[in-house]
Amino acid sequence: MRIVKPITQAILFYLSVSSAYAYDIQCSDLSFDATNIGLGIGVSWGDVTAKISEKTVHFTVSGIGLAEAGFNRIDAKGKLCLSDNPDDLTRYEGIYVGIGVAASVVAGGGTWVFVNQHDATLSISGLSQGLNVGLPFKTLTLKLN
After folding, report:
1. For residues 25 and 93, what is the distance between their CA atoms, to the nearest angstrom?
2. Chain segment 39-59, per-residue pLDDT in tens
3. Distance set, CA 141 to CA 47, 64, 104, 105, 138 (Å)
4. Domains of the chain by range and CATH?
């Protein structure tokens, strides 16, 4: 069981990064800080900071997940990628639909990959503190601050 999580993380990371290189997608580093609470339906909120075209850009994030239970804080790093017109910051806004693997019992972690309606890709991997379990499907909404 301990080997499943690292293998899944590696596969998700490889898919998100390899597709970025295959299509000459511009990727920006980001930090992702959020809180997640769930009892049946999970709700997430927090902040995303990305460096896009040498500018630091701040987004607010909110999300919903199904069959989630618990409370946790998420501190993650990742990539925000877009192939078409990456300097148009409004293309990073929108509803992201994603899949990933994560679990937290006191401390834990996970990896997620999301895509929005403009084909922007958000991939995050990081640590969480608290207790939380849920299905591997989630939606996030990013809005420029």
Report:
1. 17
2. 999 999 999 999 998 899 999
3. 11, 9, 22, 26, 10
4. 4-144 (2.40.128)
